Amino acid sequence: MDCHTNCDIRLCGSLCCRNCAVLTEEEVSELISKAKEEYALELDPKRYFREAQGEHGIYYAVKMIKGQCIFLNREKRCRVYKCRPLLCELYPVIDVNAVDERCPGIRNSRFPEELLATLKKRYANEIDERIKLEQEFRFI
Ligand code: SF4
Ligand code: SF4
């Protein structure tokens, strides 16, 4: 999910922001404090996130309104772009070795192969880090 600032969203209507990003508790705290710093936004966690039971414990899903992420504005741009969740940063990479083929940015070279390869590597590293975090601090 990532309504990248220079994407031509007339082509996709910010398709990527019609899925909800899922965050750990630490990531929610970080987003809230950065949104305050960057955009002077006071985010009430209860209003913007809902708890979701994951395999290893509680996660926080960004709420959706009418099928779109709550952080999408009327112009279909992200209101917290500079501090958007990690999953949004990694989009259109959606798994260690997969991209979302529906994203027109892939076809019109908005995301060149080298960039996608870097994002896939980062995705794999982030998963390793997340597993470590979960084992150390919380859910096991
Ligand atoms: S947080 Fe921003 S980039 Fe991520 S899905 Fe929501 S609107 Fe899109
Ligand atoms: S081109 Fe892809 S990354 Fe950009 S806003 Fe559209 S779906 Fe999202």
How do the helices and strands line up, and which of them pair or pack?
Layout: E1 22-23, H1 25-39, H2 45-48, E2 49-53, E3 58-62, E4 64-65, E5 68-69, H3 86-90, E6 93-95, E7 98-99, H4 104-107, H5 113-138
Antiparallel strand pairs: 1-3, 2-3, 4-5, 6-7
The structure holds iron/sulfur cluster (2 copies).
Task: Sum up the structure in keywords.
single chain, 140 residues, alpha+beta, three-stranded antiparallel β-sheet, two-stranded antiparallel sheet, binds iron/sulfur cluster
Written account of the structure:
With 140 residues, this protein is an alpha+beta fold. It is 39% helix and 15% strand. It is globular and about 40 Å long. The model has no long low-confidence stretch (mean pLDDT 87). One iron/sulfur cluster binds next to helix 4. The site of one iron/sulfur cluster (SF4) has 15 residues, from helix 4.
In angstroms, what separates the terminal alpha carbons?
29 Å
Structure ligands: iron/sulfur cluster
- Give the integer mean of the pLDDT values: 87
The stretches of 5 or more residues where confidence is low (pLDDT under 50) are none
Biggest sheet strand line-up:
1-3-2
> What is the element string, with H for helices and E for strands?
EHHEEEEHEEHH
Radius of gyration: 15 Å
What share of the residues lie within helices?
Answer: 25-40%
- In what range is the share of β-strand residues? 15-25%
Main sheet record: 3 strands, antiparallel
